[in-house]
């Protein structure tokens, strides 16, 4: 299985250096990853590094906890678009979810998603599935799937539990057929990445992307 085209090559640590971004950009070009996912301050630089390639520039909104105000997330969205982001991964307000305030979540989605789509950008919504019940995951599928998102994403990688085959299978069962599934968080080897794709993931968020691809070569893939 050729996984390179599934991968968002990711670096989101708070101590990210320009040299880290240059390395990620070079690796994303070399391996033909779907995108390079970087902190918002590095969107412009990443866009420059990837110019002339098919690799998209991806960034995060409301990351990693999701509880910033809608107005703050909106400002982040607008700046990311101005800076050249092709894909935006938005963390939902988990406090609202855990307090059963689905109206807040719907309002947040209605303020952010249409603006991103109007600009022709890809929108991914992160729900942090590792800290949710199955019922909460299903409700998220029912809310965000019809809202016009491109991908529902499992995790930020900052919670105690990241991607799981079970979460991906739930997504696949309850999302509209055209909605993509991004698994992220704790994907460190080829075998697990392959399992997630076989379960229904159409994009993978990984910081160990190169090791995953090289591991696949060892199994006669890529």
Give a quick summary of the entry.
It comes from Niabella yanshanensis. This protein is of the alpha/beta class and 222 residues long.
CATH class: Alpha Beta
| Percentage of residues in strands | 15-25%
Number of helices in the DSSP assignment: 9
Given helix and strand content, the structural type is alpha/beta
End-to-end span in angstroms?
A: 6 Å
> Whole-number average pLDDT?
97
Multimerization state? single chain
The count of domains is 1
User: What is the third-level CATH name, the topology?
Assistant: TIM Barrel
Sequence of secondary-structure elements: EHEHEHEHHEHEHEHEH
Largest sheet: 8 strands, parallel, barrel
CATH structural architecture: Alpha-Beta Barrel
**Form type:** globular
Query: pLDDT below 50 for ≥5 consecutive residues: which ranges?
Result: none
Q: What is the spatial order of strands in the main beta sheet?
A: 1-2-3-4-5-6-7-8
Rg calc = 16 Å
Q: Helical residue percent?
A: 40-55%
Number of strands: 8
């Amino acid at each position: 299985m050729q996984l390179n085209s599934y991968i968002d090559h990711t670096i989101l640590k708070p101590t990210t250096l320009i040299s880290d971004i240059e390395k990620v950009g070079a690796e994303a070009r070399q391996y033909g990853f779907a995108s390079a996912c970087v902190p918002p301050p590095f969107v412009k630089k990443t866009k420059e590094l990837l110019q002339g390639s098919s690799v998209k520039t991806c960034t995060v909104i409301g990351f990693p906890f999701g509880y910033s105000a809608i107005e703050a997330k909106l400002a982040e969205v607008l700046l990311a678009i101005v800076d050249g982001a092709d894909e935006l991964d938005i963390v939902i307000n988990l406090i609202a979810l855990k307090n059963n305030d689905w109206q807040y979540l719907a309002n947040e989605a209605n303020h952010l998603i249409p603006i991103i789509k109007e600009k022709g950008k890809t929108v991914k919504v992160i729900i942090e599935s590792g800290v949710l019940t199955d019922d909460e995951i299903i409700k998220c599928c029912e809310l965000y799937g019809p809202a016009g998102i491109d991908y529902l994403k499992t995790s930020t990688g900052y919670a105690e539990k990241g991607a799981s085959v079970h979460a991906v299978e739930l997504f696949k069962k309850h999302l509209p057929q055209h909605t993509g599934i991004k698994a992220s968080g704790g994907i460190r080897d080829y075998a697990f990445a392959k399992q997630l794709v076989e379960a229904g993931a159409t994009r993978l968020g990984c910081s160990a992307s190169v090791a995953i691809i090289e591991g696949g070569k060892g199994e006669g893939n890529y």
